[in-house]
Amino acid sequence: xSNHSWLEARFRLPTAQQGRALGRSLRRQGxxxxxxxxxxxxxxxxxxxxxxxxxADLAAEHHLDPPRMQKIQAADPAQAWSSPRxxxxxxxxxxxxxxxxxxxxxxILIIDPGTAFGAGDHPSTLLNLELLALLMDxxxxxxxxxxxxxxxxxTGVLALxxxxxxxxxxxxxxxxxxxxxxxxxxxxLNPLAGPLVLFALAxxxxxxxxxxxxxxxxxxxxxxxxxxxMAQALVPGGWLVASGFRQEAGEDMACFFSELGLESQxxxxxxGWLALALRK
Length: 280
Description:
Layout: E1 4-12, H1 16-29, E2 33-37, E3 40-46, H2 51-61, E4 68-74, H3 77-80, E5 87-90, E6 93-97, E7 108-111, H4 123-136, E8 148-151, H5 157-166, E9 170-173, H6 177-189, E10 197-200, E11 211-217, H7 220-233, E12 234-246, H8 250-259, E13 263-270, E14 273-279
Helix pairs in contact: 4-5
């Protein structure tokens, strides 16, 4: 039996009630399969050219962000969800935990969380990765030339995403020895991105720049501690993608970074968490 191409669309859900209403709309629009998983409604569709636009319009009607979408090759809809599939992060970038057995590629990151860090699927991490993917896809114009940095690297997932999608060298900083081990393990799992990442057992104070892009998924108080150094390290027109704080702290964080000369250009929310893309 030959494979066909299907489209999977994932919608973020602020509330369970909103999920039920969205599910009814998706069924009316012709979704082949629906599954609510935590803060997401996952849907499967027969591919057609107009579908991405229709689903984006449907999300807007329900006051949701546009869905994350990916193509799936399978013989039928039942098989499409019976085999491991990566998590779509943004244009041309997906992520899968190592236990799925998938191979790293130009579009797929493989992450082994080990025991000290998460699997990269916390909302604050996913939001940061989505903004990074959009940014490096040119959504808000071309990035300035220059290297990048990941402050508070953890598993190294943000650094590896920048290296894979942006094809640029990335300095990964973290003072925790467990982060050095986790990042090294994930560098080995991602042969296209791994060689571009340089890990340093250090905190934000080691960041001197000049950087075209800095990513940081850190709690709000630590972001404020590291903020002046990160802002100073950016070249004019450079970007900071910051996450790790709750949605209610968003305006305070945006004002804090504005005072450092970084203006918020885009934001993403999920499950009460917020990520900001800020430009110098």
